[in-house]
Specification:
The chain has 153 residues and is mainly alpha-helical. Helices cover 52% and strands 5% of the residues.
Length: 153
């Protein structure tokens, strides 16, 4: 992305077109997810393919993929290019297993919280959140029973 394109997009245009705030683009840039350059008037300019790159970032985030994982995936692309259709297929396959694990964990969470939500007291002995006198501290941090029930099988 060292070459300046024939068509340069302003940060306002990119933000509006992608449905994000200008500050989001600044944040993505500080994280190394997108690149810009400054024109002669010191204004940020973007290559048109940044629209697709931001779309990929937003789609991945909607699936629960972290920015660190997105950056890692982008780093594997030749010359840090914007993902094309083939790249997206490879990325989505790479994230597929993790997404299935998250879905299973969310289903287990939903199913195990039904009792608590039903009674509302959070004091049932079978409640995955209840831990009287922190008796489960030796087993780990956080909601130990809930975490135990949500381990991938």
């Amino acid at each position: 992305m060292n070459q300046r394109p024939k068509q340069a997009l302003s940060i306002g245009f990119v933000a509006k077109r992608c449905g994000v705030k200008v500050s989001t683009l600044h944040f993505y840039e500080t994280k190394g997810l997108i690149n810009s350059w400054r024109n002669q008037r010191n204004q940020r300019r973007y290559h048109p393919d940044v629209l697709r790159r931001v779309s990929v970032i937003k789609a991945a985030q909607a699936m629960g993929i972290s920015l660190a994982e997105i950056k890692q995936a982008f780093a594997k692309l030749p010359e840090q290019r914007t993902p094309n259709k083939t790249d997206w297929q490879a990325l989505s396959q790479q994230w597929h297993q993790g997404l299935n694990q998250r879905i299973k964990q969310l289903e287990n969470l939903r199913d195990s919280l039904t009792g608590c939500i039903g009674c509302g007291c959070l004091s049932m002995k079978s409640c995955p959140l209840y831990n009287p006198e922190d008796s489960l501290a030796s087993e780990g941090q956080g909601p130990v029973i809930l975490n135990r029930n949500n381990q991938p099988s």
